[in-house]
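Researcher: Structure for this, please.
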Amino acid sequence: MGLEYPFMQRALMAGIVIGALCPLLGVFVVIRRMAFFGDAIAHSAFTGIALGILLGVDPILGAIGFAALVALGMGLLQARSRLPSDTIIGVFFSGVAALGILLIGLMEGYRSNLFGYLFGDILTIAWSNLAGVALTLAGAGAVMLALRKPMLQIALNRDMAMVQGVRVHVLECVLMVLLAVTVAVSIKLVGIILVTALLIVPAAAARNVSRSIRQMFLFALAAGVFACVTGLFGSYALNTASGPTIVLVCIMLFIVSLIRSE
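Model: Predicted structure, token format:
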């Protein structure tokens, strides 16, 4: 099994934490059809990491700050512009990707640590990193749980929520910041590809087989944790990269959910 090794123990704990929170946030993302938004946030977090390295500050703080600014910028423009949401996200996505490439070009030498953020490696997590990540994600999860009812109202029917007095714009900004923080903190551990997959795929699979919103949350959480745990032990047994293995387990769960929904 590999659990006798400390690195597997740390990876398992991190996988359970990230595998639980990302799909729960992903439910809101899927219901609101914001999958492209999650991808844009992931890439903006990577650009924030590059900016942090260039300026000599903590890359994770740079990722959180820049990703939050991008998220709020997209939210503000969506509220005040007549452009479709996917167009606005596409503009920001292109801009942050171009800025990230530009910042990488300004760095001297080969930055292997920077590309470590791109692909991630859950097996290299240290206890100190795990504690900080767990506390941050627990805080984000607590905020999400406290605001889940009004956020769900907005996700299901934004106009009706506004009529009912829900502070739609404020809560949309809160959701975007939660996504930014979750993605930015998780990206060091598992990379852009896995963070995006955990946000979208378990929630999408849960939607295929759920008969209620409550079931969708439970199934998404179960699918995310199952994918992380199974993918982690599978990668150890097969001697494959852990991140891509977890993503492929997510995809298999989605395929199974499609078959079950027919």
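Researcher: Any notable elements?
Model: The mean pLDDT is 82. The chain is about 85% helix and 0% strand.
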